[in-house]
Design goal:
heterotrimer, A mainly alpha, B mainly alpha, C alpha/beta, A: mainly alpha, MetI-like fold, 2 domains, C: Rossmann fold, 8-stranded mixed sheet
């Protein structure tokens, strides 16, 4: 082995670029990210820039007073749109977070536990999966007089959780059987550390993609609930609820409906593009 | 563990799993297990439905709202109907017993038997979902195949970009845009709401069906065709397709016989998933178009806190999901030789 | 070239073939000249990344997505396959040039029955009637020694064993009576006895049908047994080409020699050596001679221009400007004495009456053996012999077993988790596949440091210093510290895995097929590394392998396993020189050898 010398430096970076870094090279991700950031800024700062007050009457109902006209109560539509994003944004973001955390925990524990654990957890998971997301939310709302924002966040989160869990379990199953996890077990690492240090870091790309997708669905779900008349504050502006409120004026003053619909559409397209960009990166695997 | 899997040293002596002998019995056992699991899931679903509607909040308080404190007589009356005094467990088994005998209970809001109330809307919704599915399946497969044919060239990129944008849109966005375009604002071709005579069906006037169906189709197809495209591509890139080409088999035979056969199973899974998706989608779409189906009825019942109706409709929708998935599972196994032979051996 | 381009009937002439990556000016393979004479088997040998498979499929005018054939001719009886219309190419494929894939299990369609897949081939070419096609399928299967009854015809690919699948692929390739056959690593992953049978079948078919074959492989020993001529590829070029005997007796290229130096022999123990550095990927290959940065005989002139392939003897060509200056070479170079069978043994680990189960199925039956200090004991067997299962039970990775395992006086618990920290520390396991055994997200420093932290050996700066030391011992530079495992080559990863095991300061290493996923030159250097560790640190090793030749070079004692039982055990010299059991003799005779 006397001829063995240290190999010449290979022309590669020592670390793999992060998922985010790689996703930035995707056009669809950057476009989606741009749209999403703009929409989030619009939702956050909209109320500060709105021309009128949230519940200020600026003209007769369904009139063309103002840039986008007025709604069924004579509020300025543009103002309502600028105010109407916050509730959707907050509930969607926190609901998604809750769903991801719950789902990942359930899925990874099922995969790592294996055997009976896996069987029972996934069987229960299937039960919740039998309900379309909106149905699960409606079911709980039946017995509740007036939902608070927390109830809505919990509903969004819980309806996501089994779907996230199924994906997380699938991804985790591919990892827990790999030798580096077994090696950690053989060294006697704590189970919690095996999950946190060995399994989870290898799941981040598919989980990020799933989070993006779940955010898209959260926006749709919260919007749908608003459209069906379920929101935390019925008096406040809310994109989903605006569609419901102004529906009867669709033929005379379409902007009251079309404006919030377009904002929701752009928001969903943005987050979905972002999610797909990450998914592309995740699919390509380690290289 | 390859070590555990094959214990035979001489490959000439290796035999395939026995076929035929225990086949029939193994199939019955397997099928019974599948159906049993589905029934177990349904039972757990019923518990969840009951708990969510009866135990989480106080339905009586929700129904009466501000009247709750002002009208103790009405409270007592409703509590009697709901049998609130009895324990949760005994109320559950009463309800489940009724369910198994086909008695869905009595609507709180109208006082009518639930089964009478919902029978026509169940049919209406089934027709709507069926129409959407019949259009959606060939449409999304066709789009996927066109896309695969032009793989990574211009038409494919254009199609994928459009599909990707559409796949993120919620159903009410698509519905409202169609409504504005074809009904109220730009063109006035189709009616905005469904008007049905009490004895007739919504499809008596075909124009009524167009927008709700189209909304569902446009909502689901992008997602389905993207998945079908992905699984087709996976098959096409596989080594056995590569080898089929290297054996000199013509391209159309490669596609038809070698590729498609292996892409059917993922396709079935996607369709099953989407049928279940549609069952949820009808809630919003029916409300938007005032289409007299279970979705519209469910939303009304939730608003009125009509517990019995909500329970019945939720059970129906969840059962559809469980049954569709059961069928899809069985079909997938039957169409996958490896899984099929694993059962009979 | 010594052969003219006007080839006679049959055979194939490849000239100036090049394959480039699409959209980049980067070659995958370059300047390939090769002749397949009628009825001749040419072995195309190379390590991973050499481009050998690319050359193989190019003969059928096929390149994988992302690459294209950029230059050259493939002449089949004077017709250029690369210049044909695609309809013509399609007709040629299979009918005149057939292909047997690397992994036939994934290359047979999983959804179509075997019989139907064979009949389809005949149907497409309009050969025979529907009955005669079925008969043709039966004959084809019979010819490769498979059953030809209806039951067999109606099986799916997953219902066949590895050897059967490969023979089905051979039958399908031979059915249309091709003139040229391209075989792409067709026996990789098969057991030696199965491999021997497939190779025999192939050779027999080539002889009877007068087919010329290109046999693509990484395994020089296989080539030594079947090829008439051998071509060695490195980094996309043929570096040496010649008749088999000349290639093994007088290899003229430094790379060929280094490759042969890294291969263990069945007949005698050898001090194996590796080739420093890593095989460059397309686009990262050095200018001048592509091997110059790893070559022991490099001079400045090597870096200037790509050497031509030039004759050094009759039909023997070499791509090296110094071929005449680097001296002679001898196959028995590097031979060392076998491990002394009479050395006194101080037992550190003993396994008694081990029975192992998977669920209700027993896979290991009453196995007993022991391991002495500073000794290597090899567990040898084919797939299904239970060798890995035994090592996993000893390592505490599989807990469903009975019997006793005693380690330095302590009886070990079933699973690693139940064992105390001292025993976990002193007994370290190294896995077969280095691509799976290192967490790709962690840096090398984190990976190697972890056992030290866990067992309280060192932490912080001290631990980092120890990591640098360990990396140095496994011939990796300190640069590697901050690298993520995903950036390393297979050989480098396996070194890191060894460093991780050493970090725990173990007394026993369990090595589970640790070189079988690596190229031979890398295997050579890993074996050299292990031998050094054994001598310097007195570490004992349980070495699991299917490769008997490797056992001869590394182990002192050997346990031959079959179907979960020990059939023969003893010192390596005794077992391999004077095997008592029929099974051992069979294994030894079926193992391909180059000595």
């Amino acid at each position: 082995m006397s001829t063995e010398v240290a190999p010449p430096p290979p022309a590669i970076a020592p670390a793999e670029p992060s998922t985010f870094r790689k996703a930035l090279r995707q056009k669809r991700f950057t476009v989606g990210l741009g749209i999403t950031v703009l929409l989030v800024l619009f939702a956050i700062f909209g109320p500060l820039l709105a021309p009128y007050g949230e519940n200020e009457v600026t003209g007769p109902p369904y009139s063309d007073v103002g840039f986008l006209g007025t709604d069924y109560l004579g509020h300025d539509v543009l103002t309502r749109v600028m105010y109407g994003g916050q509730e959707i944004l907050v509930i969607a973001v926190f609901g998604t977070l809750l769903g991801m955390v719950l789902g990942i925990a359930i899925g990874v524990v099922a995969a790592y536990g294996g055997g009976w654990w896996d069987e029972v957890i996934m069987r229960l998971n299937d039960v919740v999966l039998a309900f379309p997301q909106i149905l699960l939310a409606l079911l709980v709302l039946t017995a509740i007089e007036q939902p608070t924002a927390w109830v809505l966040i919990a509903l969004v989160g819980i309806s996501h959780a089994p779907r996230v869990a199924r994906l997380a379990r699938g991804v985790a199953l591919g990892i827990v059987s790999r030798d580096f996890v077994i090696a950690a077990e053989a060294l006697g690492e704590k189970r919690s550390r095996v999950i946190l240090a060995e399994v989870l870091p290898n799941m981040n790309a598919p989980l990020l993609a799933e989070a993006g997708l779940r955010l898209t669905y959260s926006i749709a779900l919260v919007g749908s609930l608003g459209f069906l008349g379920f929101s935390a504050d019925p008096g406040a502006a809310n994109w989903g609820q605006m569609i419901q409120e102004n529906r009867l004026g669709l033929s005379t003053q379409p902007w009251g409906v079309i404006a919030p619909v377009i904002v929701i559409a752009i928001f969903c397209i943005g987050t979905n593009l972002m999610a797909d960009g990450i998914a592309q990166v995740a699919q390509r695997g380690d290289d | 563990m390859t070590d555990a899997a094959t214990l035979l040293s001489d490959p000439l002596e290796e035999v395939a799993p026995p076929r035929g002998q225990h086949g029939a019995a193994a199939w019955v056992v397997w099928l019974a297990r599948r159906v049993g699991l589905a029934l177990l899931t349904l039972w757990l679903v019923s518990i969840l439905v009951f708990l969510a509607t009866a135990a989480l909040g106080d339905p009586v308080r929700a129904i009466l709202g501000r009247d709750y404190n002002a009208n103790p007589g009405r409270v007592a009356e409703l509590e009697a109907v709901l049998n609130s005094d009895a324990s949760l467990v005994s109320r559950y088994f009463d309800w489940l017993g009724g369910l198994l005998q086909g008695d869905l209970g009595t609507s709180l809001a109208s006082g009518q038997p639930v089964s009478e109330l919902i029978s026509s809307s169940v049919v209406n919704s089934a027709v709507l979902v069926f129409l959407a599915a019949v259009l959606m399946i060939p449409l999304s497969f066709a789009i996927a195949m066109i896309s695969v044919h032009y793989r990574r060239r211009r038409p494919d990129t254009v199609i994928q970009t459009i599909l990707l944008a559409m796949a993120g849109l919620p159903e009410f966005v698509i519905g409202v845009l169609l409504l504005a375009l074809f009904s109220t604002t730009v063109f006035h071709i189709f009616p905005a709401v469904t008007i049905t005579s009490p004895t007739g069906h919504p499809w008596d006037n075909w124009k009524v069906m167009v927008l709700p169906t189209l909304t569902l189709v446009l909502w689901v197809s992008p997602y389905v065709s993207r998945i079908v495209r992905a699984s087709l591509l996976e098959v096409i890139d596989s080594e056995y397709v590569e080898l089929a080409r290297l054996k000199g088999i013509p391209e159309n035979v490669v596609m038809r016989k070698h590729a498609l056969l292996n892409a059917i199973v993922p396709g079935i899974q996607v369709i099953a998933l989407q049928l279940a998706f549609l069952a949820g989608g009808v809630v919003v779409v029916e409300t938007l178009f005032a289409y007299p189906g279970i979705g519209l009825q469910l939303v009304d019942a939730v608003r009125n806190h009509d517990v019995q109706v909500v329970q019945a409709l939720s059970m129906i929708i969840a059962s559809v999901y469980v049954v569709v998935n059961l069928i899809a599972d069985i079909l997938s196994i039957l169409l996958t030789p490896r899984a099929r032979t694993a059962i009979s051996s | 070239m010594t052969v003219t381009e006007s080839s006679p009937k049959g055979g194939l002439v490849v000239s100036d073939l090049g394959v480039d990556l699409t959209g980049k000016d980067i070659d995958v393979v370059d300047d390939i000249d090769l002749v397949l004479k009628p009825g001749e088997v040419v072995g195309l040998v190379g390590e991973s990344g050499s481009g050998k498979t690319t050359v193989g499929t190019s003969l059928l005018n096929y390149s994988r997505a992302g690459a294209f054939i950029s230059s050259g001719k493939v002449l089949l009886e004077g017709r250029d396959v690369l210049g044909m219309e695609w309809q013509e190419v399609r007709k040629i494929r299979g009918e005149e040039i057939a292909y047997v894939p690397q992994d036939p299990a994934s290359a047979l369609n999983p959804a179509i029955r075997i019989g139907k897949q064979i009949v389809e081939l005949l149907q497409l070419r309009n050969i025979g009637t529907s009955e005669s096609r079925l008969q043709g399928a039966r004959d084809g299967l019979a010819e490769v020694g498979l059953p030809s009854d209806d039951e067999f015809l109606s099986r799916y690919a997953h219902q066949l064993s590895g050897g059967q699948v490969q023979r089905v692929a051979l039958a399908m390739a031979f059915l249309p009576k091709p003139k040229v056959l391209v075989l792409d690593e067709p026996t990789t992953g098969l057991d030696v006895t199965t491999q021997a049978m497939v190779l025999e079948t192939m050779a027999e078919l080539c002889r009877t049908h007068g087919v010329s074959a290109l046999y693509v492989t990484h395994d020089l020993a296989v080539v030594a047994n079947i090829a008439d001529r051998v071509a060695v590829m490195y980094a996309g070029q043929i570096v040496e080409l010649g008749p088999r005997d000349a290639m093994f007796r007088n290899p003229a290229h430094p790379y060929t020699r280094a490759l042969l130096d890294s291969i263990p022999h069945l007949s005698q123990a050898r001090a194996l050596t590796g080739i420093p550095g890593r095989t460059p990927a397309p686009g990262a290959r050095p200018s001048g001679c592509r091997f110059h940065d790893r070559c022991a005989f490099v001079v400045d002139a090597c870096k200037e221009s790509v050497p031509e392939l030039r004759p050094v003897a009759a039909e023997h060509d070499v791509r090296c400007i110094r071929a005449e200056e680097i001296g002679t070479w001898d196959i028995s170079r590097g031979t060392v004495p076998d491990a002394d069978p009479d050395r006194p043994r101080e037992v550190i680990l003993s396994v008694d009456h081990l029975n192992v189960f998977y669920g209700s199925k027993q896979v290991v039956y009453d196995v007993s053996f022991d391991l002495a200090k500073a000794e290597v004991v090899a567990l040898v067997g084919e797939s299904g012999s239970g060798k890995t299962t035994i090592s996993r039970s000893v390592g505490g990775l599989h807990k469903d077993w009975t019997g006793t395992i005693t380690f330095d006086g302590d009886e070990l618990s079933k699973s690693a988790r139940q064992r105390d920290a001292v025993n976990r520390k002193r007994l370290q396991y190294i896995f077969q596949n280095p691509y799976l055994s290192l967490n790709p997200r962690l840096t090398i420093e984190q990976i190697v440091k972890r056992p030290m932290e866990l067992f309280g050996i060192a932490k912080g700066k001290e631990a980092t210093d120890r990591v640098v030391d360990l990396l140095d011992q496994v011939a990796l530079g300190p640069r590697m510290l901050k690298y993520q495992a995903s950036r390393l080559s297979g050989g480098e990863r396996q070194r890191v895995a060894i460093a991780r095991a050493l970090a725990a300061e173990p007394d026993v290493l369990i090595c589970d097929e640790i070189t079988s996923a690596l190229d031979v030159s890398v295997q050579g250097s890993i074996v050299a590394l292990l031998e050094g560790l054994r001598q310097q640190r007195g570490i004992s090793m349980l070495f699991v392998t299917h490769n008997l030749a490797l056992v001869r070079s590394i182990a002192a004692r050997v346990e031959i396993l079959q179907a979960g039982k020990v059939v023969e055990a003893g010192s390596v010299v005794t077992v391999m020189e004077t095997p008592r059991e029929e099974y051992t003799r069979n294994l030894l005779s079926k193992s391909p050898r180059i000595d």
